[in-house]
Structure formats: structure tokens, C-alpha cells
Design brief:
The structure is a homododecamer. Chain A contains one helix and three strands, in the order βαββ. The first copy, chain A, is α+β, with helices and mostly antiparallel strands. The first copy, chain A, has a single domain, classed as 2-Layer Sandwich (Dodecin subunit-like), CATH 3.30.1660.10. In chain A, β2 and β3 form a beta hairpin. Chain A is elongated, with a radius of gyration of 14 Å. β1 of chain C pairs antiparallel with β1 of chain D, so a sheet runs across the interface.
Chain lengths: 69, 69, 69, 69, 69, 69, 69, 69, 69, 69, 69, 69
């Protein structure tokens, strides 16, 4: 039977949480096979000089596990 | 005294979680009376071929309860 | 084997959380069969002009499932 | 865009949690369209005279929402 | 050693959760020194006449603590 | 857009959790503007010589934020 | 140094959660020494024939530990 | 009014979580009166040499409380 | 001192959650050294045409960490 | 098969949480057989006259269950 | 009846979480009256150049509430 | 935009949780680039012959993600 692994990534984007989350998915897709659901586990913002400079989305991604840590 | 019921819906949209959540609210509003707060209980993304194809928002909606399950 | 369904209702009462929760149970009992446990998942208060005007109890009720959503 | 609804059911079976959960899925499938994932939110056991007489699985089921409560 | 305090604010905006969260950050930045991370603890929507009229983001903000409640 | 702040108070009363929670609301209403929902986050009891001497309710209150910590 | 133990009891009363919780405290006080805080971990109701017949409060009690399980 | 106590046990079995949980119930039933619901709070597995050698179920059992710790 | 790493895998099996969890353990054991406890963090089911076609168990596995991500 | 029981103790020490937790383990070890893991479920501090006078650690201990409550 | 307020502070110290938590208590004690329990809600570490440079403890402090936000 | 990955490690030390957590950070720093925050997700103790023989800290570490699982 197939086995999946879950990794947790944090994407960052100056405009929105959607783009921050998508950045994490896109980076993972370069090396991971058969990505499926990406669920959001946390949202936050980086602040500098009293301004929001980046939106960050923590996402859990599952993909087909080929063994290894 | 008035009694409210809570339903949990999942809205889906290719562009944003706001539109996904709004889709769920709009569908519910067609048949439910006196919708009030809609709180978000989960956000995730559907992925195909390594791309985000849809944003999904799980929302809890409360509305006036008329009896029934 | 029997199957049960769980609904979440919010009862409201100006005097106490017990009466708020009971209001939810009584309304459900008019149309649902074989109610069993009602567990409390949240308590809050409505405030107007700095006064508590209603106690609200969110309760999860299980009852015999006959099919349908 | 499609909207899904989530219902919470409790299935019961004298032999295993798998069969208890399956009982809930089968009952729901008689009347709900396009069932997808069923996630387990709780497991417990009924005891009589110091013996386990039934396994119970609480499952959350999502299915295509056609409107209504 | 430096000590930080955490406040919880709710921002509101008719267009998006990003702007709602940013509204809370901007208001806090008028009087608080050295704001750092702002993490999202809840998202919801206000509904009127079956329409989403505002997105709300509850955010936890940490800033340098100068003493007091 | 309006911004709200959340404070967490603990009210105490020898008779009931309703009165304990109301005590917290009343004290806050003396100095805070536009109080809205007060949600209960914890209930406990103080015990002396094996007797319950006070009921305590921890409540989260939201009110219009004018700036400051 | 003193060591405390925590037990979890469920009190039951036909009238209120306060009296249900107090019943648990009173029963424990008959045999346990130096009871301190009793925090509420769950509230529910027993229902018969569609009526609330008892309020139940699950409380966690700490008391001086003299050894043993 | 009757008072119940809750104990948390971990049962172990080489074949299944159902049997692990049942082992805990059976051991408790030898000395505790009027056992009612047993809810599962955790499931895990013991591994030796890369093989699952035992399934373990942590269960919370309630029974009539006669006093004592 | 030894350091352990935790990975989260999802095993799948058409018959039971025990076999699904075991599938995840067995796959990990092919490449990871000194596996210890495997705790279950989620159980769900895949449904096709109203039937359960697979049980899935999400498990957290700890093993000796040799460095790397 | 062996069955384990879990007790929850609170240790107290004026210097550190490690010593507070160890105090709870040592007291339990005087009367309980085959103690295994002790996991920390809460940390807090007692304050008098604005000073920390004790660190407290709440720990869950599992040990071989011989029957009884 | 007395009303208490809860504030959440983050203390930082290069040596230990005890000293980090104590730093938060000491700073608060300069301006708040009648501090009581301080419970830990989170522990983390700051890292620079691969080294732990500070331990941080997030603590919730309750103190007598005199009104205000 | 930069993407971060989160790994969960368990450090062990005979003397304190601070040293246990630091051990995990130090091991990770040998192979991971740009480590930032390390948050504690669990603390426990290993017990042998009724004595605490090791403190263990489970920490979540974020570091710059270069791709891969």
C-alpha cells in the first residue's frame, strides 16, 4: 500500500496569505512527487517599523513517501 | 427564547480563501434564515500537478433554528 | 447497528446557562427522536449598555439518525 | 463553485471501530450525494457488567451541499 | 533583560483578512513601541442580509513592555 | 475601520458562575466603551476546609480599542 | 517539598452545574486532605424523554498526596 | 446524588487496539463498581527491530466513586 | 547525548487502521535506524461510491537523528 | 497483557521546574511499582509579595496497574 | 467581589526558562498589585549562528483589577 | 520569497530541559542553514528504578528550505 509523508513549511509573501502558502507549495513541488492536500496550520505577519512587511503561512503538505527521514 | 443551530460548510474558490468562505455563506443564505456569524475553522488548498488549483475554507455558520435535524 | 447524529445548537436565556442549555434541548426534542447526552461546548454572554442581557450555551446533542443531511 | 457540508455521526458495532465507522458511512451513503473523506473525531466503548459490549466511532463526513440546514 | 507583552486585537475590513489584520497592526503601532510578530488566532466574517459585510482577524501582537497592566 | 481589543478577567462570586461572570462584566463596564461579547474561557471553584467558598469565571471581553497597551 | 495529586470526578445534580460540582467536592472532602482548587473540565446534561433530568460537572481536584496510586 | 471518578489506564495487546482497550477495561472491572463509558484518549504502537510488537490504547474509564484518592 | 527526530507518515490499508499504521512503520523501518514509539495523530477513511475503500492512519515516528533536514 | 495506570501529580520546588518534577517522581516512587515515562502537562509559579517563591510542575506518571481505583 | 485581570508577558534570559519567567514576574510586580499565580503558556529559544542565545518563557499573570483596559 | 521548513527533534540530557533542548539545536546546526526560532512542544522525563535519569525536550526548529523532503 502507498505511504505518505507530511512536511511542514512556512511560506512568506509581502501581499497575501494565499501567495505565501502558494510559495511553500511551489518550492516543495520542485522536488516532491504526488503532492496532495496542503492544510494551513498557522498564519502570522512580520512587522517592521510598525508596518506589516510580510504575510507568512505555515502549511502541512503530504506527498508520496519513498523512504528516508 | 430563540435557539440557533450551527452548520459546518466547506467553500471552494480558485482565487482566495475570502471568496471560498463567501461561497459557503452565499449558498447557505439561499435557504437559511437569519445567518449571523461565520467563523473559520480550517483553511487548506487543493493541489494538482504541483499547483494550487483551489483554496478551501471550512466555516461554521449559525442561523435561527426552526427544529429538525 | 444503530447510528447517531450530532447537532450543535445555541440556546439563550436571560437568567442562567442551565436555562439556556435547556432551551436548546427542549426545542430539539420537538422534532428529534431518542435524544441522549447533551454536552456543553461553549458558554458566553450577550452584553448591551454594559449589562449582561443573555446567557448563551452551545450544546452538542446526539439523537437517532434516520438518514439525510 | 461547489460547496460541501460536514455532518458528524456516531456508528456502533460489537466487534471493532472499523465496523462502527463503516456503519456510519453506509447509513449516510443511503441519502447523501458524493461522500468524500470521513475523519474520526472520537472513539469510545460501551460497557455493561464490566464487559465491552460495543465499539463506537464518531466520524465527520463531508458531502456535496444542496442547501438547507 | 527585555520583557514583552502580548495584546489581542480584532481588526475588521470589508475586503480581506489581510487588510483586517493590518488594520489592527496599524492602530496598535500608533501607541506601542517595538512591535514584532503578529500571529493570527481567529478569522471570522460578519453577515448581514445573507451577505458577508466584513472580514475580521483576531491577532496577537507582542511589543516591548514598559510596566503597567 | 474599527478595531477591538480583548481583555481576560476573572470574576468571583459565592453563589454561582453566572454572578461571577457578571461581576467581571460590570467592573469592566465602568471604564471600557462599547463592550460586546463576553465568552467564558474557564470555570473553577475555590475551596476552604473542604467547602466551596467561591465560584470563579474567566471571561474574555471585547471592546472598542482606543490605542495603548 | 509538598506534592499534590489530581483526581477527576463527575458530580451530578438535577438543578444546576454549581450543585453538581459542589457534590463532587463534598464527596471528595470526606476522605481527602487539604483540597485546594477544583477546576471544571466539562459540563453536560442527561436527557430522558426529551427532558433534562440532571446536570453533570466534571471537575479536577488537587489535594495533598500521601503516596499510593 | 451519585458521584463518578475517572481513571486513565493504558492497555496493551499484540493484535489490535480493540483488544488493548478491552484489556484495560477487563482489568479495571475486577475491582471497580459500575463501570460506564470508556473513551479512548490516545493510540500508539511499540516497535522493536522495526516491527510493531504491541498496540496500546489509553482509555478513560468512569465508575461509581466511593471516596478516597 | 542522543537526539531523536520525529516524522509524520500516513499509512493506508483496505482492511484496518492497525494494518494502515503498520504499513507506515514498515516503510520507515527500511531506511530509519532505531525506531521507537509510533503514536497515532489521526484516523480517517477514504470513500468511493458510498463505500469505505481504505483506512488511513497518520502516525508520528521517532528515530535516532543523524543530522540533516 | 500488562495494563498501566496514569496518575497526575504536582511537584513544587523553590529553585527549578526540574526539581519540582523530580519531587513528584520521587514521592510516587515510594509506593508505585515500575514507573516509566513522566510527561509534563503544565508549569507554573507561586508568587508572594511580587516574588517567585516556588516553581510547580504538573506531571503525568504511568506505572503498572494492580487493580483498584 | 474582587475581580482579577490576566496579562500575558514574555520574559527572556540567556541561562534558563526559570530566570526568563522570573524576569517577567519581576517587571510586572513593579506596577501591578496583588500578583498571584503565573502559569507558563509557551517556552522557546532564540538562536543566532546555530547557538541558543536566549530562553524565552511566555507567562500568564493574574492580578487585582482596578478597571481600565 | 524565502521558504522555511520545520523539523521536530527530541533532545535528551541528564541535568535539565534547557540542556536537552540545546542538544537538539546544536545537532541540527551541524547540517541546517539559517536556524531561527526553536519552540518547545513537549517536556518529559525518563525514569529508571524510580529515579529521573534524563530530561527530554521536544523542539520544533525552523530553517531555510532548499527543497527535498
Amino acid at each position: 500500500m502507498s505511504v505518505y509523508k507530511i512536511v511542514e513549511l512556512v511560506g512568506t509573501h509581502p501581499e497575501s496569505w494565499e501567495k505565501a502558502a502558494e510559495a511553500a507549495v511551489n518550492r516543495a513541488a520542485e522536488s516532491l512527487r504526488d503532492l496532495r492536500i496542503a492544510s494551513v496550520s498557522d498564519l502570522d505577519m512580520q512587522i517592521e517599523d510598525g508596518k506589516v512587511v510580510a504575510y507568512r503561512a505555515k502549511v502541512k503538505l503530504s506527498f508520496r513517501y519513498e523512504g528516508g527521514a
